[in-house]
Design a protein that fits this description.
With 371 residues, the chain is α/β, with parallel strands linked by helices. 47% of the residues lie in helices and 13% in strands. Strand 7, helix 10 and strand 8 form a beta-alpha-beta unit. Helix 3 crosses helix 4, helix 6 packs parallel to helix 7 and helix 10 packs parallel to helix 14. Bound molecules: S-adenosylmethionine. The site of S-adenosylmethionine has 24 residues, from helix 7.
C-alpha cells in the first residue's frame, strides 16, 4: 500500500500548523486522500506535492480561492506550474530590486541635501510601493460589507462613478457604471476578470473633463498620494459628489487607543509627518467627515482591522498586504512582531487589553469624507 504521512508530520515538514491543514481540507483546497484507522487525516505523495504548490503560491501572495483555481487548472502540469512560479518570482525580484534602487536614490539625494520632487516621491511611495507589494494584496484585502454599505449609501443616486486609487476594486458598487483609476501596473493586473475598466493615472492629474462623473470615490488610498489635497481637488473637479474613506491623522487619541501603534509600532507616527490635517482634506472637497467604526471581525485586512484579533498580526500574509509594515522597515517590523508574540504568549497583551473583548466595534480614526 502507498505510504501516507500523518497530518502532524506534514505540518512539521511544511512548517505550517495542523490547523492550517485542517482549514485547507475544509475549504477543499487540499483534501488528504486517506484516513488512518483512527480516522485521522493521512497524506499521500500526490497530496504533499499539491501542498507544495499551494504554499508556493501562498508565499507569492495569492488568495486561497485563486490558489484553488491555479492548482486545479487541468491545463497545467507540474512543469507548467514550476514555470509559472518561476516567472512570478522573477517579477517579484525585479520589482523588489527596482524599489531598492529607488530607495538608494532617495537616500543619496537626502544625504546630499537634495530635495525630492513630488513626482519622485510618487514613484517611491505611491504606485511604486504597490508595484512592489501589490501581489500580496488580494490575500487579505477584500470588501468589508458594512463599510461598503456606508460608501455606497454616500454615493447617493450617482449612476456614473469614478473610483480613484482603485486597486483590485474592493469597494466598487456593482449596480453603477464604474470607471477605475489606478497608477500601479501590478494592482491593475490583479483586478479580477469582469472588473470595471481601469485607466492608468494618478489622482493628482485625472485625465477627465470637469464634471464628467456623477460621483468620485477614493478608498484607503489618499494617504498614499504625494499630494492629497491636489488629488482631492481633482476628484472634486471631475465629479459632482465625492466620497473618501481615509483616516484622521491629527487625532493623536486613536493612535494612543490602538494598542498596535501605542505598544508595538510607535514608528507609525513617523509615517504621518507632513500629512495634511483632516480639515484640509475636507476643505479640498468642500465636505464633512463622519466616523467609521471598525467591526471586530472586519473582512478587509487593513492596518487597524485586527484590533480584537491580535494573533493576525503575527501572520506574514496579513502584514504583507498592508503598506505600513513595508514603510516602517524590516527592523521595526521584526521588533514589533517579536514583542507582540511574547506578550500574547505571556498573557500580557490580554491583561493590558482586557476591555477590548467586550467591544464589537472600535473607533480608530477612520473617517468617511462626503461632499
Ligand atoms: C491600500 S490600496 C487601496 C485600493 C482600493 N481602493 C481598496 O480599497 O482596496 C491603495 C492604492 O492607491 C494607489 N495609489 C498610490 N498612489 C496613488 C495616486 N497618486 N493616485 C491614485 N492612486 C494611487 C496604489 O497603487 C494602491 O492601489
Amino acid at each position: 500500500m502507498e505510504e501516507h504521512l500523518t497530518v502532524g508530520r506534514v505540518a512539521e515538514l511544511a512548517g505550517i500548523t495542523v490547523r492550517t491543514l485542517h482549514h485547507y481540507d475544509e475549504i477543499g483546497l487540499l483534501r488528504p486522500s486517506a484516513r488512518t484507522a483512527a480516522g485521522h487525516r493521512a497524506y499521500s505523495a500526490a497530496d504533499v506535492e499539491r501542498l507544495r504548490k499551494v504554499l508556493a503560491y501562498r508565499r507569492l501572495g495569492f488568495g486561497l480561492r485563486e490558489i484553488t483555481d491555479l492548482v486545479d487548472d487541468p491545463a497545467t502540469d507540474a512543469v507548467a506550474h514550476l514555470r509559472r512560479l518561476r516567472g512570478l518570482l522573477l517579477g517579484q525580484r525585479d520589482r523588489a530590486a527596482a524599489m531598492v534602487t529607488a530607495i538608494d536614490r532617495e537616500l543619496e539625494a537626502r544625504a546630499m541635501g537634495i530635495g525630492t520632487t513630488p513626482e519622485e516621491r510618487l514613484r517611491m511611495f505611491g504606485a511604486r510601493l504597490y508595484d512592489a507589494i501589490g501581489s500580496a494584496y488580494p490575500a487579505t484585502r477584500r470588501t468589508e460589507p458594512r463599510i461598503a454599505a456606508r460608501i455606497w449609501d454616500a454615493l447617493g443616486d450617482a449612476r456614473t462613478v469614478l473610483n480613484v486609487g482603485a486597486g483590485t476594486g474592493s469597494y466598487e458598487p456593482p449596480d453603477r457604471e464604474v470607471t477605475a483609476v489606478e497608477p500601479s501596473a501590478v494592482m491593475r493586473a490583479l483586478r479580477p476578470p469582469g472588473a470595471a475598466p481601469c485607466v492608468a493615472a494618478a489622482a493628482e492629474r485625472l485625465p477627465f473633463e470637469d464634471r464628467s462623473f456623477d460621483a468620485a470615490m477614493a478608498v484607503s488610498t489618499v494617504h498614499h498620494w504625494p499630494d492629497p489635497v491636489a488629488g482631492l481637488r481633482e476628484l472634486r473637479r471631475v465629479a459632482r459628489r465625492v466620497v473618501v474613506f481615509t483616516y484622521d491623522a491629527d487625532d493623536i487619541g486613536w493612535r494612543q487607543r490602538f494598542w498596535l501603534t501605542r505598544d508595538y509600532l510607535p514608528e507609525f507616527a513617523g509615517l504621518l509627518t507632513g500629512w495634511p490635517a483632516l480639515a484640509d482634506l475636507t476643505r479640498a472637497i468642500g465636505g464633512r467627515a463622519e466616523p467609521v467604526l471598525i467591526p471586530w471581525d472586519c473582512a478587509d485586512g487593513f492596518f487597524e482591522a485586527y484590533w480584537r484579533r491580535p494573533e493576525a498580526y503575527l501572520d506574514d500574509h496579513v502584514r504583507r498586504a498592508v503598506s505600513v509594515w513595508t514603510r516602517v522597515g524590516p527592523e521595526a517590523e521584526r521588533r514589533a512582531v517579536r514583542s507582540l508574540r511574547e506578550d500574547l504568549a505571556s498573557g500580557r497583551w490580554a491583561e493590558r487589553n482586557r476591555d477590548l473583548a467586550a467591544l464589537d466595534t472600535a473607533e480608530l480614526g477612520l473617517r468617511l469624507l462626503v461632499a
